[in-house]
From TrEMBL, chains A, B:
One of its GO terms (molecular function) is pyridoxal phosphate binding. GO terms for biological process: L-serine biosynthetic process. It is an enzyme of class 2 (transferase). Belongs to the class-V pyridoxal-phosphate-dependent aminotransferase family. SerC subfamily. Pathway: Amino-acid biosynthesis; L-serine biosynthesis; L-serine from 3-phospho-D-glycerate: step 2/3. InterPro entries: Aminotrans_V_dom, Pser_aminoTfrase, PyrdxlP-dep_Trfase, PyrdxlP-dep_Trfase_major, PyrdxlP-dep_Trfase_small. It comes from Marasmius oreades (fairy-ring Marasmius). Residues 7-355 form the Aminotransferase class V domain. Its cofactor is pyridoxal 5'-phosphate. The keyword Zinc-finger does not apply. It holds the Pfam family Aminotran_5. This is phosphoserine transaminase.
Amino acid sequence: MSDSRVINFGAGPSALPDSVLDEAAKGLLNFKGTGIGIAEISHRSREFVEYLNELESLIRIQLDVPPTHKILFTQGGGTGQFSAVVLNLLARHRLLHPDLPNEGRTLDYVVTGSWSKKAVDEARRLGATVNIAADARKLSGSGKLFQEIPPHDAYTFSPDPVLIYYCENETVDGVQFSHKDSAPSSFPFHLLPKSTLLPLVADYSSSFMSRNIPRLADHAVIFAGAQKNIGPAGLTILIVRQDCIVDVDAAAKLGAIPVPITMSFKALADANSLYNTPSVLPIYIAGLVLQRSKELGGVQYYEELNRRKAQKLYDTLKEGEAKGVFRGKVKEGSGSWMNVVFDVLGEGAEARFLNGAEEQGLKGLKGHR
Amino acid sequence: MSDSRVINFGAGPSALPDSVLDEAAKGLLNFKGTGIGIAEISHRSREFVEYLNELESLIRIQLDVPPTHKILFTQGGGTGQFSAVVLNLLARHRLLHPDLPNEGRTLDYVVTGSWSKKAVDEARRLGATVNIAADARKLSGSGKLFQEIPPHDAYTFSPDPVLIYYCENETVDGVQFSHKDSAPSSFPFHLLPKSTLLPLVADYSSSFMSRNIPRLADHAVIFAGAQKNIGPAGLTILIVRQDCIVDVDAAAKLGAIPVPITMSFKALADANSLYNTPSVLPIYIAGLVLQRSKELGGVQYYEELNRRKAQKLYDTLKEGEAKGVFRGKVKEGSGSWMNVVFDVLGEGAEARFLNGAEEQGLKGLKGHR
């Protein structure tokens, strides 16, 4: 098997360990000795419910998720959550402030790349009033590109926003917040309005479980599609603080936008993520990946591993820059550990670079346009 | 392998052929000779896009879907579509009749079981005005149970409804429309308002690809979760007539409920079902199942097979009723070919029946409460 397998650098769906795929292949035929394959087993069966609970605890333990937060599983990817966080948190805001006019309900977005920009587009599509708390494109020298995490003095937050949104790692642009609170390119937690129940929302789709989540407990919602780091596409993971799991139907009666039932955090939470049939197969594979991750030493292990890998890659990039071979596209200190974005310089050089890589079995390096 | 596999009667996720599972297990490690597993491959890769197009054509050919209709793939199951059809067809109605007050926008629902009842609940949650075109519980002798398809004289449709909704096969209740147009328990197409562009919506989740779809071309939307007949959970298939793929954003500006982008038929159609990362693994397995189905003789083959199986089962049930062993729960002529619902009579008899079945490797017979 390993003979024919290539090394896949695709940004997502991304590579899975061979041992996990072997185990998954077995589970397709016989899940946990039930004689029924994982793709066929009832999601209400004892065996599956236990497995889902295990998956929940693998995440809770490795990320140190406090009991104030629920871990939920759903479908629709990060894009589904672009809408769901707006609708659920607008409902929450409506219940907190029933008499405020719609124009008074402001959603703060930090825009650091293509994905956070898409999230803004969706909030506007849904009719929300958006305040751009910071826009990386407006910084000196950036032009129209996202090349850095804004410095702390570039942020302006609203006093009582419906939500405060950021994307921790931008896949297309290769920009990531520093996970050191004190770093200039970290998220400016100290500038947020003072509240113990801040509506802070983070898209962790492309860095979930790759390292610790700074100030996890201060977040209202953290979401991630599984397909970047922990499994196949089709599974979305939510970490939601309990005060954000609100009665969306009561809010709709007060004038909030009605929330489709599959997007209601409350419907999901009340049914322990089994309101409707979940995507059992991605759940199964995510469980295998996170079990392996736990055995290897958990998120701490990956954090150290990823730090070393990123360091090596950025060092090589720097050398290449000095030689005029490469040009990094992201400002120092804002570069992603997950996806490193650079140009290969010279006429036809990029094609030669990609061909050479493919010949050595390294696929999916091209990335986005 | 087959030694340890049991016979799985679960209503869904339901059993998959061993040959498909073997093939799927191989694809997990190496999809179509790419050296990359199906769970890891980019959904933008040539190989995957070709596969998706093949899946589309496997459905189009076997069900004889006309070019007036698009076939789309999404996530979220039938429950997601309970909301999506309401939102997209409300948007369509708004664009057709911009000045009508909301109370004038009526949604017609035919209620024949638990799933169509859930669809009504969701329409009401979203604030829609519902007309129950027929309710099987109100028929003589039914009491609070769904035990039959209403006779044609029990329907009352609105003159210009936003949608006309029915569930072709009710899994919990074991009730299914006859697929013979002339049968008394067929869907009353001849009673519908006269229009070439009827907003007729059918939930085919539990009978999709098990037999032909009567009057398919007259439908506005047919939807189905894959997990009942053609693959694992996590894939939803839509057959949508082109006039129902509308500019939901323009409709929202006119006052329609905003539609989350992952639920917009237009966003899906414009991106050939690749607006966001699709659930590649269920798509892969559905392709294997439908390829096999085509080789066996297509939907016609299954229709004949299912007719014979159902006949045998209902005959046995009748014999058992005569002997006082069983009691069928559905009126003759309304019984489902997919899921046959009956009581086992006598103190402790049901438990003995289920135990006996399990001993012979027949699992999942218990069904819903």
